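COURSE: Structural Biology Practicum
ASSIGNMENT: Worksheet 4, Part C
STUDENT ID: 0417
INSTRUCTIONS: Below are two proteins. For each, the amino acid sequence is given first, followed by its structure token string. Answer the questions at the end about the second protein only.

PROTEIN I
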Amino acid sequence: MLMDSPARIRTRPGALMWWLYSVAALIVLMVAVGGITRLTESGLSITEWKPVTGTLPPLTEQAWATEFAKYQRIPQFRAHNADMTLAGFKTIYFWEYVHRLLGRVIGMAFALPLLWFALRRQIPAGYGWRLVALLALGGLQGVFGWLMVRSGLSARTEVAPLWLATHLLTALFTLGGIIWTALDLRALKRTPFARPARLTLLGAGALVLLGVQLFYGALMAGLRAGHAAADWPLMNGRFFPSEVLGTKPLAALLVDDPFLVHFIHRWWAWVAVAGLILLARGARRAGSRAASVAVHSAFGVQILLGIATVMTGVSLWLAALHQLVGALLVVMTVWAAHVHGIRTRAS
């Protein structure tokens, strides 16, 4: 009977794989909660960043009154919520609190098991640096989240759209990295000498096209650009909002004009879909029909949700589902790119 080497016995790629899948699921949930937080305009309800002491919500009426008084001092309250009651404040505080609490839970769910696996020398060779990098990305995500909130506490009545886009894209990039690493570990679990997949040109191209679409989706949320038109495929009865041209430099219009951002988001989607179809076909040729079906299903549902969100005047739950499926689309695209990378390396 063949015996595994001591190093092989110590490493546990299967356990690490399931741990990373669990963290990824929490990030998908956080993206959904973050979408609700933005849609309910709850993101500025907590005006301070206290990573440790902020874990607990206000527990007395006096504490609630203190938090409400802090919110009343920022421009958003004075401009949009001057008639808000303490009960209304508690509602928006809830979503921002849950969003931040999930961030803390994800940090602990990543850092503590990582330390455990490291101390027991159960991390396969070559994966330690990658896991530490993913942990650092998670920490950076928290910093970006606070910078996003801070951007809306003084001169603005909402968070800066570009900070919101940075916050969301960092979360999705981290999610993609976690899924890719989990899939590498899955291959290592099946074959002890499996090498990590490489990102092919097809996979990278599809991910870049999707990344542009996600960037404009974040700008849509930050600018409330979903309200710019409630019809489809036309926008307010026209194909292109030409009246915005010339009002600002083109570079500025591309990131801060709600009509142009909305136009780009709804039509760049089809460019991204073309790239995703090519990637899905590549994954199928590589032997994974499941990855191909998953990508097609995810972008199909995402398009339908996007159209429905626009035509319902940005229904809260449809918009939240749209953001949730966007995160799932990232997962499916990374899966397909990974499949294609394995096949290419094997050949």
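PROTEIN II
(use this one for the questions)
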Amino acid sequence: MGWIAISAAEQRWYDGAPDQAFLARGSLVVEAHLSPEARPQRLLAYQAHHPWERSLSLQAIPGGGVVLVLSQNGESHHVTLALEASERADLLRITYSWDGPARWARLAIEQPERGTVRSVLAPPPHPLWRADIKIMATRPDAVQTDEDLVFFAVSDTIEPLGPTPSLGAHVPLQTSAGYRPVSALTQGAFVDTLERGPTPVLAHLSRTVPAFGSFRPVRLRAPYFGLQQDIVVAPDQKLVVSQPMVEYMFGCEAVLVPARHLVNGTSAIWQDGALTATYHQLVLPNHETLLAAGTPLESLFIGRLRRKPELQAQSQLSAFKRADLPEHMLSAHPVLRPFDAITLVEQCAA
């Protein structure tokens, strides 16, 4: 079970069950940049006529937020989620999830770069036809998309919201027994952190996602950033940079740099080619700094998720008792903006 359709740029793929007419339970995930001019955008639209009329439309409307309209056989359902002005400046991930038998549906908006999530319940859903999903994913002439759409994909599961793993399976993390791949560090294992030394792993999370947009893999290349070998991370995985140049340029001991801001064709490159990517991360008692192949980077940040039962229930940590989840404080290190990150990398490489 997992992703059955992905459409991004020149990559179009479908692999659904041919013997089932409907996708009774699943998720439609759309990533897009919203127009800074606040123009109306039809992010994704599809219409079919046989054996009866049905359509799907996802729009961003100035002053009206994101609107999803689903119709079948003359019956339409609308769901709207308001947008704040600041959200238009970022890449947005819009997820519509549904469970037909349970008569449940949800529309959510995430800002991957900021880690924010908002959602609203939707009317009882019309399950999507698998034939329609196949056409949408593989025939660009049959679907309308906006130029600022990054990708859309369909999963046959209810996709989680909130904190997302961000390390490739083979990223080696330092432990008292030497470096071990993050995929091998399960609950109860110990991993070394810069702040507290050996630290127990409370949870090991992994997730397979479309390898595009906010999930597009970044290869950080050795020997840059102090790396002993290349590692692959998600775009929003943050490195902790504490070189002398940092204090000179920014007046602080260390800064956080998202991997997406380091891509320059030399020290960091996009790793394209695959349709999906599988990421891993560790939940620790505190928000810590791990050592990955010689370079410091952040462990998974979950903030005060335990105080938000509705969001926890939608996340990958839904199975955990609230009392067993830690509370994470934000790092004291500032997060660099794209221009500052580029300048820092250029200065350190000079």
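ANSWER KEY EXCERPT:
Q1: The first strand starts at residue 3 and ends at 8.
Q2: The mean pLDDT is 91.
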